[in-house]
Specification:
The complex is a heterotrimer of chains A (158), B (309) and C (222). Chain A is 35% helix and 16% strand. Chain A contains 4 helices and 5 strands; from the N terminus they run E-H-E-H-E-H-E-H-E. Chain A has one domain (13-138): Rossmann fold, CATH 3.40.50. Chain B has a single domain (6-300), classed as Alpha-Beta Barrel (TIM Barrel). Chain B has helices spanning 6-12, 30-40, 61-70, 87-99, 129-142, 171-184, 197-209, 212-215, 228-237, 245-275, 294-300, and strands at 17-22, 46-49, 76-81, 104-108, 159-164, 188-193, 217-222, 280-285. The chains are: A alpha/beta (158), B alpha/beta (309), C alpha/beta (222).
Chain lengths: 158, 309, 222
């Protein structure tokens, strides 16, 4: 458990950004080289395409205590793999329903689109998300100590 | 004579038959049946008593039919849908209905219950309407139950009817289906409401060319229109019902207060036109919750007095 | 395949009740293909349940395991072996799997996580449609390969009924009239005589109406 959650007054959200290699990840790079400041609360996970994002990645992030998660994909029509970003959009929408089912605010999960040239937009999104999650407060699952997970599959090759 | 009902007598004597429709109440009140029956008495040869029409629970058709028989008001045509009963219940009901003095039965599949007031019910459809016609004919003529077992004296003597929707697309299959109903043993046919006489006449010609008009008595359906809104709704939502634009315009032009009168005028005109169509042996007037208007329509259409045979 | 959909989480939670150590059991055949109860759906449900109960401070343990098929004994053995350590099995198989496990587990509750819906086909990715009812007496050779028992809302054998218009069923403009499809198909196959003949009253006893069914092939028995 990180120190920032022990003192609620100084809540610093932990946000996971699943970023497409071709757009948002490059945009983050651009923001960096252009010296644009953005929220340090965002931890980037690079994906070869936003279409690679799996509902389980999102759920496991929340289960591990992330306060917010977002998927940053190419602009619609601009996916390097044609429609990976559109698939990601549908999965995010579905994952939002799964969060609602367990009583976790679906606003903790968002989908953003940007191009690799939009360093400023990347910074804006990171700040926007940080501000929103700060208002929502910490993910209550942060304080839960889960029993050791036992996963096993009898299926071959899994 | 197959069943000896008044309707059969009228039709077989060559008279132009008139039937109407009576919707039983959503209650156990017999008075509603008696009052509605008395409105129609003397103006029709028989009256259809609907069987949980549109899958909304109402007093049983057989019970309502038995009431009008007992009171000597009017001859009932009990409607029987296959939606709610399997072959065991149907045959048992048929025996009971015949024992109560009911002599006509209209065989229907029935509206699907998903649009009724018990959409979560289990549907039955053990038989379809054509199979029901065949089963009743076998009960009457071959004196056997569906299982093949013999029916003891007295067998149910019913004049068997079926419905026909001639103008639903594709029209070519509707004539095939009419032929199947007639082959199964339908003594008479009541059609869906007709507004487009020209298209109806074309379907009738096909039916007559196949010899169906000689093998069965076809009664054309008349649904009096109350308003332009009802006409538009029927046009859009009732399968096989096509209300011509010109008719909707007449109702609109008549204004709200006079639309009903215009609708009845249209009904009278339709009856007169349909009478001229080859093979039409009568009309079936479906005035839903508007039974009190039937006598006026029958009178204006020149169908009085009704024959007493 | 057998098509199923997962029950709403609230209903699953109610079904789990007070059981504390629960194995979420997936099935890798039909319900995996229709994305209702395969390995992935098991992990999603397990994650949701852990978070839901964790958030509320309720202590439960969810184990997860998926086998190739829950309708064959050799595949469900891992579940049977684990039974002693569990309070319940939450099966994500179709109803067959739930029954099959329950028949073999005397004192362990086997709970359903899915609503088993129909025998269907994948019309397109994410869309499944019902095609067969398992009635026990196939007549598809008479109806151009289109099943009226399954695809006609009234299961009638001499359709279309008067509620069909323009190829659509009376229950919804989204539902095709099976008998319209049959008519068009028979016309294309030059087999319209099939629709002109009266299909007689059917013997439904070959289906569920005749009671639960069982099939024995002596030549295959060991």
């Amino acid at each position: 458990m990180s120190s920032n959650v022990q003192n609620k007054g100084a809540f610093e959200p932990q946000i996971i950004a699943f970023c497409c290699h071709y757009c948002a990840y490059a945009a983050a790079d651009l923001a960096g080289s252009a010296r644009i400041q953005y929220s340090p609360n965002v931890k980037i996970i690079r994906l070869p395409c936003s279409g690679k994002v799996d509902i389980l990645h999102i759920l496991h992030a929340f289960e591990a205590g992330a306060d917010g998660v977002y998927v940053a994909a190419c602009l619609e029509g601009g996916c390097h793999f044609m429609e990976g970003n559109l698939r990601a959009k549908k999965r995010v929408a579905y994952a939002k329903q799964l969060l609602e089912e367990i009583g976790l605010e679906s606003e903790r999960l968002e989908m953003y689109n940007m191009s690799s040239a939009m360093g400023g937009e990347f910074a804006k999104v990171a700040d926007e998300m940080t501000e929103k999650i700060s208002k929502l407060g910490p993910n209550p699952l942060k304080f839960v100590k889960f029993a050791k997970q036992s996963r096993k599959s009898g299926k071959e090759g899994s | 004579m197959k069943a000896g009902s008044n309707l059969e007598k009228v039709l077989s004597s060559g008279e132009f038959a008139v039937t109407a429709e009576l919707g039983p109440p959503k209650s156990a009140d017999p008075q509603v049946i008696i009052e509605k029956g008395n409105i129609l008495k003397g103006y029709v040869d028989a009256v259809n008593i609907t069987d949980n029409q549109t899958a909304i629970v109402r007093m049983a058709s057989i019970a309502a039919g038995a009431i009008v028989v007992k009171e000597g008001i009017v001859e009932p045509v009990m409607q029987m849908v296959t939606r709610d009963r399997n072959r065991i219940a149907i045959q048992s009901d048929i025996l009971g209905a015949a024992a109560l003095g009911i002599k006509n039965c209209l065989c229907l599949a029935g509206d699907h219950h998903s649009s009724g007031n018990h959409p979560s019910a289990k549907n039955v459809y053990d038989l379809d309407s054509i199979q029901l016609v065949a089963m009743l004919k076998a009960m009457r003529d071959d004196k056997v139950f569906q299982c093949g077992e013999e029916i003891e004296e007295v067998q149910p003597q019913l004049f068997i009817g079926a419905a026909w929707t001639p103008l639903a697309d594709p029209k070519e299959i509707r004539v095939i289906r009419l032929a199947k109903k007639v082959a199964a043993g339908a003594d008479f046919i009541q059609t869906q409401g007709v507004y487009d006489v020209k298209s109806f006449a074309e379907s009738m010609k096909k039916a007559c060319d196949m010899g169906l008009c000689e093998d069965t008595y076809i009664l054309a359906g008349i649904i009096p229109l109350k308003s332009a809104g009802m006409a538009t709704y029927m046009q859009k939502s009732v399968p096989g019902v096509n209300v011509p634009d010109e008719m909707i315009k007449r109702l609109k032009d008549a204004g709200r207060k006079r639309a009903g009168a215009e609708g009845r005028k249209i009904a009278v005109e339709l009856i007169q036109q349909l009478r001229e169509v080859e093979g039409v042996r009568g009309v079936h007037i479906m005035a839903i919750e508007w039974e009190e208007r039937v006598p006026g329509i029958v009178e204006k259409a020149g169908l009085l007095p009704r024959p007493s045979l | 395949m057998i098509v199923a959909s997962r029950k709403p989480l609230d209903e699953i939670i109610e079904i789990i009740g007070d059981y504390e150590k629960v194995l979420i059991a997936g099935c890798g055949t039909c319900v995996e293909v229709c994305h209702a109860g395969g390995e992935k759906e098991v992990e999603i449900l397990a994650s949701q349940l852990r978070m839901k109960f964790g958030k509320e401070g309720i202590n439960k343990e969810f184990l997860s395991d998926t086998v190739e098929r829950q309708c064959e004994l050799e595949f469900i053995e891992p579940f049977l072996e684990k039974a002693e350590d569990l309070d319940a099995i939450l099966s994500m198989a179709c109803g067959v799997g739930v029954n099959f496990l329950a028949d073999r587990l005397d004192s362990l509750p086997v709970l359903p996580a899915l609503d088993t819906t129909f025998y269907g086909a994948t019309e397109e990715q994410g869309v499944w449609t019902e095609k067969c009812s398992g009635c026990g007496k196939c007549i598809l050779h008479l109806t151009g390969g289109i099943c009226p028992i399954t695809r006609c809302s009234k299961s009638i054998l001499n359709g279309p009924c008067g509620g069909s218009d323009g190829g659509k069923c009376e229950i919804s403009a989204d539902v095709d009239c099976a008998w319209h499809l049959i008519y068009e198909r028979l016309k294309a196959l030059n087999q319209l005589e099939n629709i002109q003949a009266i299909n007689p009253i059917r013997d439904w006893s070959t289906g569920l109406d005749g009671g639960p069914r069982k099939m024995v092939r002596e030549d295959l028995r060991l």
